[in-house]
From TrEMBL:
It is a single-pass type I membrane protein. Residues 68-187 form the Bulb-type lectin domain. The lineage of its organism: Eukaryota, Viridiplantae, Streptophyta, Embryophyta, Tracheophyta. This is Receptor-like serine/threonine-protein kinase. GO terms for molecular function: ATP binding; carbohydrate binding; protein serine/threonine kinase activity. InterPro entries: Bulb-type_lectin_dom, Bulb-type_lectin_dom_sf, G-type_lectin_kinases/EP1-like, Kinase-like_dom_sf, Prot_kinase_dom, Protein_kinase_ATP_BS, Ser/Thr_kinase_AS, SRK-like_kinase. Its EC number is 2.7.11.1. It comes from Dillenia turbinata. Residues 549-823 form the Protein kinase domain. Keywords: ATP-binding, Disulfide bond, EGF-like domain, Glycoprotein, Kinase, Lectin, Membrane, Nucleotide-binding, Receptor, Serine/threonine-protein kinase, Signal, Transferase, Transmembrane, Transmembrane helix. Belongs to the protein kinase superfamily. Ser/Thr protein kinase family. ATP binds at K580. It catalyses: L-seryl-[protein] + ATP = O-phospho-L-seryl-[protein] + ADP + H(+); L-threonyl-[protein] + ATP = O-phospho-L-threonyl-[protein] + ADP + H(+). Transmembrane segments: none annotated.
């Protein structure tokens, strides 16, 4: 309401609001406080300020709200390249180096450490160092290589460009002298849209291929000409579009997608009414950076990032946080009649606790490209013989995967049959790669398998056919053996035309050689058994001795084994970790079999991958993928404190790996020795659980087991010492201690350097939590102190994990959800002894 009711004054105010809104939508020329002021126009100072602002409006808005880039300006791609920055500094335009592969001409958020890219030119091809982008004197924006050859150009309307500008909205524009945009990046979106960016009929976003590969990927977000907003897969590598896997069903009514400055995303009709809400959060663009992107995994997500570190006190972390996303479960939403689906052929899709899909290979299969998990998997064993010359079905077995399916790969369907009938039908059919049994129905499927997913809603089970010995060369070796024998017999027969004595000697020699070949084959099969159902390479001791240069370079040592660095040419892997068990044969054999049984059947990105083994006489050796960044202990307790965000990710990865072992394996696995030395880090610092030598396996109908004390001092749960059944909760206890060490970058047991008394980190954390003084735990760690809300949550989780009573500890699945913020963390009780209740 106006206090000053003068018609002239009101008209002046209305015009100011109209002009200011128009200007701010393009360049944020005015603060909203300047407009709010004029709701109280009666004050003595309001009118002079209004007049001053009206005079400012007479100036070109670019003079006060943007930094114009003059004709002839250029940027050269190199490590210290200059950039063109918006007036607030929120956005920048220039070259970003993508790994060591080249540079990308892009627009990005400039004030956050991640420098997140929101638009790129010529995304399909990175350019080499020395390339240049120039706003020519003719007004063209041209990208050229170091030799001056044109690679890309912005096609502006006409030749009247006077300047370029990086606007605070994230829009990069070419404009004429009247500040009319002749070309703008907002009209050519890549995979991201920003607040105020128009998204009209026919507009689309194309997902990048991977997180660091900005070429066009396999998913499309599009407002079709009929008004329907859809997510579809593409017929990759072509751009043609498949059927939608998510849609608003607004054909005939949808007109424009709005992403407003309040942070809401919705679809409107031509009459401006809302026909579909996509994301309705109210986190204003004043306090948060916003972006919406069709991610490389095919999910459309709305992200926010706090502009001020002070928001951490309200629970916001200094990272991109997902506010909303569609579809809820892409693994279940995106099966395609033609094509592989969300994941590549022969793989299957699984939704994690963070609601992000993971593409996994089934047993007996491995990634086509370990660096591209969405590219599919290949079969690692020789398929069943279809030539009819021999019946080899006895060489194959069916591996059971519950709640798993590969839709649209079936070629036969049978109704009203039993599971045993379905099993026999698949084993007896050389074309059958997997059978799906559900509710009396049996579907036989052949390679390549497509649209794989695992989810409780699938129901039933997949019966995956694998070779019992998983040896790709079995038949080849058999044939080679037969050829050798036939050749010797043939040579012997030919030579029988010579003297009788010579022929007799030759015949005896031939028989001896054949006998030795057969004996050698039997000995090899007895000496090197392949564990059924495991996709592992069978090495000889000599091969591993050569691979490690005589077991020369030691990279780790434990109570049961020594680990050596080796080189084996295997697919894309060259460096391997060779674990040689050194105890007496009986103990070594037990630990060897435990580790083989435990990890040989697992498949998870947070578990170290077992590649092969050697079981030759007294030699018990396991061959693992090599972890280039060593153990968490080396990483955490070295001279340099690791970054806080890296420690957080290690906590997430370890928790997910344990949750998989406890809840997602057909045989539940208790690791029994979770500690920093057994958490290894790959080249990307991804945490991977290792060392299953003392693990315990539980059948599905078991809840606990009795065993001798295992594990490492400081990480061992109290029930080990109390003759109680051992359950998965012992791993939860160990994880709680490990999580606290990640928070503090200190060992659980240390000796005080001043008085020489031992310091127990869990006791110290309890005291700090009780006294509400958690800063003491991270007193020299500014990154952790700036994220003190998360620190407090992690400490609360630790206290829950180290409860003396195992029944009070959460499951690892619940721990993972609490870590990731998916569920609330209740106030933990004091850990107290429960001896009196025994």
């Amino acid at each position: 309401m106006f206090i000053n009711s003068s018609p002239l004054f009101q008209a002046l105010y209305i015009n100011l609001v109209v002009f200011a809104n128009r200007a701010s939508s393009e360049a944020n020329c005015f603060e909203s406080a300047d407009l709010t002021l004029f709701a109280k126009m009666g004050s003595a100072f309001a009118l002079p300020r209004l007049v001053r602002l009206m005079l400012l409006l007479l100036l070109p808005c670019s003079c006060i709200a943007q930094r114009n880039i003059s004709l002839g300006s250029s940027i050269t791609a190199n490590a210290s390249a200059s950039i063109w920055v918006s007036s607030s500094g929120d956005f920048a335009f220039g070259f970003q180096e993508i790994g060591a592969k080249g540079f990308l001409l892009a627009v990005w958020f400039n004030k956050i450490p991640e420098k997140t890219i929101v638009w790129c030119a010529n995304c399909e091809n990175l350019v080499p160092g020395g390339s240049k982008v120039q706003l020519t004197v003719n007004g063209a924006l041209v990208l050229s290589d170091p030799n001056g050859r044109q690679i890309w150009t912005a096609e502006s309307a006409g030749t009247n460009v006077s300047y370029a500008a990086m606007l605070d909205s994230g829009n990069f524009v070419l404009a004429n002298q009247n500040s009319v945009n002749l070309w703008e990046s907002f009209d050519h979106p890549t995979d991201t849209i920003l607040p105020t960016q128009p998204f009209n009929l026919g507009s689309n976003l194309v997902a990048r291929y991977s997180e660091i590969n900005y070429t066009n990927g396999r998913f499309l977000f599009m407002l079709r000409d009929d008004g329907n907003l859809v997510l579809s897969t593409t017929n990759y590598p072509q751009d043609s579009v498949n059927a939608p896997y998510w849609e608003t069903n607004t054909a005939g009514s949808g007109y424009q997608l709005i992403f407003n400055q309040s942070g809401s995303i919705y679809l409107i009709a031509q009459n401006k009414t809302i026909v579909s809400n996509i994301s309705s959060d109210t986190s204003s663009t004043r306090d948060f950076y916003h972006r919406a992107i069709v991610d490389f995994d095919g999910v459309f997500r709305h992200y926010v990032y706090p502009k001020s570190g002070g928001l951490s006190s309200q629970g916001w972390k200094n990272a991109w946080t997902v506010l909303d996303y569609v579809p809820p479960n892409i693994c279940m939403a995106a099966p395609e009649q033609v094509g592989s689906g969300p994941c590549g052929f022969n793989s299957y899709c699984q939704i994690g606790d963070d609601q992000r899909p993971t593409c996994l290979c089934p047993l007996g299969y491995s990634y086509l490209d370990p660096q591209d998990e969405m590219n599919g998997c290949r079969q690692d064993f020789e398929s069943q013989n279809c030539e009819g010359r021999s019946d080899d079905k006895h060489l194959f077995d069916l591996y059971e995967m519950t709640n798993t399916d590969w839709p649209f790969s079936d070629y036969e369907h049978f109704d009203g049959v039993s599971e045993d009938w379905c099993r026999a039908a698949c084993l007896g059919d050389c074309f059958c790669a997997v059978a799906i049994f559900r509710d009396g129905n049996c579907w036989k499927k052949k390679l390549p398998l497509s649209n794989g997913r695992i989810d409780p809603r699938v129901g039933g089970k997949a019966l995956l056919k694998i070779r019992k010995d998983n040896n790709t060369s079995t038949n080849v070796e058999e044939n080679h053996q037969k050829d050798n024998e036939s050749t010797l017999i043939l040579v012997g027969s030919v030579m029988l035309g010579g003297s009788v004595s010579f022929n007799c000697c030759l015949l005896l020699t031939t028989l001896v050689v054949i006998s030795q070949l057969r004996k050698r084959k039997v000995e090899c099969l007895q000496r090197c058994p392949v564990v059924p159902g495991m996709n592992l390479l069978n090495f000889t001791y000599k091969e591993l001795e050569e691979a490690t240069d005589g077991f020369k370079e030691e990279v780790g040592r434990g109570a049961f084994a020594t680990v050596y660095k080796g080189v084996v040419q295997f697919e894309s892997t060259s460096l391997v970790a060779v674990k040689k068990l050194e105890k007496k044969v009986a103990e070594g054999d037990k630990g060897f079999k435990n580790e083989m049984s435990a990890i040989g059947r697992t498949n998870h990105k947070n578990l170290v991958q077992l590649l092969g083994f050697c079981n030759e006489g007294p030699h018990h050796i396991l061959v693992y993928e090599f972890m280039s960044n060593g153990s968490m202990a080396d990483f955490l307790f070295g001279n340099i404190r690791p970054r806080w965000y890296q420690r957080v990710q290690i906590a997430f990865g370890t928790a997910r790996g344990l949750s998989y072992l406890h809840d997602e394996c057909s045989t539940q696995i208790i690791h029994c020795d979770i500690k920093p030395q057994n958490i290894l880090l790959d080249s990307s610092f991804t945490a991977k659980i290792s060392d299953f030598g003392i693990s315990k396996l539980l059948k599905t109908d078991q809840t606990g087991t009795m065993t001798n004390v295992r594990g490492t001092k400081g990480y061992v749960a109290p029930e080990w010492f109390r003759s109680m059944p051992i359950t998965v909760k012992v791993d939860v206890y160990s994880f709680g201690v490990l999580l606290l060490e990640l928070i503090c970058c200190r060992k659980n047991f240390e000796t005080d350097t001043q008085d020489g008394y031992p310091v127990i980190l869990t006791d110290r954390a309890l005291d700090c939590y009780r006294d509400r003084n958690l800063d003491l735990l991270v007193e020299d760690d500014e990154e952790a102190k700036n994220d003190i809300v998360r620190v407090e949550k992690f400490v609360m989780i630790t206290i829950w994990c180290i409860q003396d009573d195992p029944s009070m500890r959460p499951t690892m699945k619940k721990v993972t959800q609490m870590l990731e913020g998916a569920v609330d963390i209740p106030a933990p009780p004091e850990p107290t002894s429960f001896i009196s209740t025994l």
